[in-house]
Amino acid sequence: MQREVVGIRDELESIKCFLKDVEASEGKGDLHDGLKTWVKQVREAAFHIEDVIDEYILHVAQYRHQHSFVAFLNKIGRILTKLKPCHGIATKIRHIKISIREIRERSERYGFTSTQQGSGCGATNAVTWHDYRVGSLFTEEGEVVGIESTRNELVSWLIRGEARRLVISMVGMGGIGKTTLAKKLYETESVEGHFDCRVWITVSQSYNLQKILKAMAKQIYQEKETTVLMELNIMDEITLISQLRHYLLQKSYVVVFDDVWKTEFWEVVKHALPCNNGGSRIIITTRSHHVGVSCKESPSDLIHNLQPLSQKKAWELFCRKAFQLEFQGKCPRELVRLSHEIVRKCEGLPLAIVAIGGLLSTKEKVPLEWRKLHDSLSSELESNPHLTSVAKILCLSYHDLPCYLKSCFLYFSVFPEDYSITDSRLFRLWIVEGFIEGKKGKQLEQVAEECLMELIHRNLVQVSFRDLDYEVRRKYRIHDLLHEIILSKAGELNFCQVLEADDSSFNGKGRRLSIHDARQNVVDTIEPFQVRSLFLFNLNEMPRSFMVKLFKKFKLLKVLDFEDAPIDYIPKEVGNLFHLNHLSLRNTKVKILPKSVGRLQNLQTLNVMETPVRELPIEIFKLYKLRHLLAHYYDLGIKSSLYSLQGVKIHNRIGKGGSDEGSVLGGRGK
What we know:
alpha/beta, Rossmann fold, globular, Disease resistance protein RPM1-like, ADP binding
């Protein structure tokens, strides 16, 4: 049995490497529907392998129930060899091998030999790529709202100021209007007449530097130097840079590089743009703060962070689009409330406001039509031709992420819309989920913080603030439309499933389950071996029958996050969850932890903050892997105008570090 498990474990490692390559190809639009279906089957096979391995480890753990944990660690090899094979696991392994063989044969039959080449419906070389941002280059004046003062300020910066060459980087999330603003600056009459030559270059994620340099040369020379234009096709990069540099040395120029993703681009192309003291200007638009910083080479260079439209300006833009041909551009009274809800979902993102407003302009102006769009926005973003460009543009940022950050970003799909989370909670979850890999000389929490900062610098995660007891605390969230998009992506990858009332898309599968509606039979609709992480949000009640079924059915859970859930007890069966490494009961009514928590030998986080728990069982000294123990107790029943913060009694020798009896671990805001 051990040999069989090792064999499928090795197969799993190979599959994971393949799926990483697929993710990279998908970002370039290289996957057809046939290939996507096949990849989905490969991914499901990987999940089945993980299930069997975890089930086998659980079987081993149950076998050694009379051995001490330390002895188990020392003798695990001998136990594995002596363990009687579990017939059910052996059968599952045979089925997995058959399934993998069939998947491999299917790939050969239909030409799914790699993500780069193939034939038939799986061929990738027939993909036609479209730049969904092209509409930003041709935005009508009536669709431009809220940038007037910024445009005037930047026009002044372009045509006045220092004589040295200056760079301005416009930074902001996708769809916020960077390209539109840059284009309006570029086409302003005073800018056109001020410079000897102007160049507009769209860079994008996948760029060819030689082609970009040739495009720059063609725009600069136009028909003035026909001989040079004829020679461009035979010039290499170095020659092109030298040619451009020589020509621009005596010119006043403005160059726009739109949609820059990589810092390496500027490090090379800047050599074609001489610092000639002719008042030349360079405009760069990017979603990445890192790119903006890398282009700032002097104190006079600017980084302009674009902000979402104010609620007032967003409403003005929406009404212009939705009611452009009717009601004199004003919203009818019966649609005001729904329209405000739709605008709020856009969170000041001009791209979304224009697209959704344009779609609604074609609809009948009745509340029923407005409500349909509001309630089905997620599916409309995927399927409605008027809105797919919005999803595609926003998805570019996801596809540009390195593999290790994609899981971190997708994790925000677990939380409800508009939900803000503290960094410490996010770090703990990322770590126990296995998303954070250690780095020499750094704690895992420090690496997790670097990942969060990278997502912020890419304008994918927003910083929000909350006031708590006269303190301002940072929390983190994502834009509502990004949330809609990653919900779809997480479902497609079986990364996470969200269960809400009246959700017909729920299929019971998913590595993570986020429940927003606790129906009596909810547990019966879920594949128990699929789920590894369980979250509860916005629930008014939690039937005890749910808790009983939960701990009886879900044997392979690794994360249980009951924060803010309406529960008042944890059954002793929690101790059977051998794989559990995160248990949060924060802000619940649980009073007593069962002694069986001492059997959770993989537990890394135990959070009983803001609960009535006043003493932790002595059995938790067995939890050798415990990294975070968070506990304190509020006594809100005392007759005083002030609450009482009391200690939680614990015992020494807990986890790796240990603690003195009677101490308090953790603190507010954790």
